[in-house]
């Protein structure tokens, strides 16, 4: 069995968001996307080093067939979100789903569309238990 991948840091997560949104990218493309998103300078060499480290960790794959290396996410956004949420739920909420949801909804108001999605999920969970 493969050991679990390490959780991405904040900086690595920002890079993964770019790769999930745009697909395969060069270092320059990731750098430009981060620079535009943050409205601040992100040093090119820092992005390069982060991508190299992420490749070593197994978070991204590097295509070295061309002179300019191309990177892509090796993990899905959904899996990453679930892993991060599971860890947060265990560490901060003692594994309690209810505590996590209550805190999340008290911190930020959900849109009507999000509330409808939550209701459907609750209905589905209720139906599965009967």
Describe this structure in words.
This protein is mainly alpha-helical. The chain folds into two domains: 10-73, Orthogonal Bundle (Arc Repressor Mutant, subunit A); 77-129. 65% of the residues lie in helices and 8% in strands. It has helices at residues 10-22, 27-38, 44-57, 77-93, 97-107, 112-129; strands spanning 25-26, 60-63, 70-73. Strands 1-3-2 form a three-stranded antiparallel beta sheet. A hairpin with a 6-residue loop joins strand 2 and strand 3 (70-73). The longest helix has 18 residues, at 112-129. The mean pLDDT is 89.
Give the gist of this structure.
This protein is mainly α and 130 residues long.
Which architecture of the largest domain would the CATH scheme give at its second level?
Orthogonal Bundle
Tally of structural domains: 2
From the 3D structure, determine the CATH topology of the largest domain: Arc Repressor Mutant, subunit A
Q: Which regions are unreliable across 5 or more consecutive residues at pLDDT < 50?
A: none
Fourth-tier CATH superfamily name of the largest domain: Winged helix-like DNA-binding domain superfamily/Winged helix DNA-binding domain
Order of helices and strands: HEHHEEHHH
In whole angstroms, the N-to-C terminal distance is 35 Å
Strand and helix map with partners:
Blueprint: H1 10-22, E1 25-26, H2 27-38, H3 44-57, E2 60-63, E3 70-73, H4 77-93, H5 97-107, H6 112-129
Antiparallel strand pairs: 1-3, 2-3
Helix pairs in contact: 2-3
């Amino acid at each position: 069995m493969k050991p679990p991948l390490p959780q991405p840091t904040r900086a690595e997560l920002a890079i993964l968001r770019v790769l999930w949104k745009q697909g395969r990218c060069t270092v320059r493309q990731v750098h430009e996307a981060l620079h535009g998103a943050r409205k601040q300078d992100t040093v090119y060499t820092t992005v390069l080093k982060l991508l190299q480290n992420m490749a070593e960790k197994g978070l991204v794959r590097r295509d070295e067939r061309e002179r300019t290396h191309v990177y892509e996410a090796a993990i899905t956004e959904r899996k990453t979100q679930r892993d991060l949420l599971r860890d947060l739920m265990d560490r901060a909420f003692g594994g309690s789903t209810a505590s996590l949801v209550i805190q999340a909804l008290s911190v930020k108001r959900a849109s009507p569309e999000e509330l409808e999605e939550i209701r459907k999920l609750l209905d589905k969970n209720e139906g599965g238990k009967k």
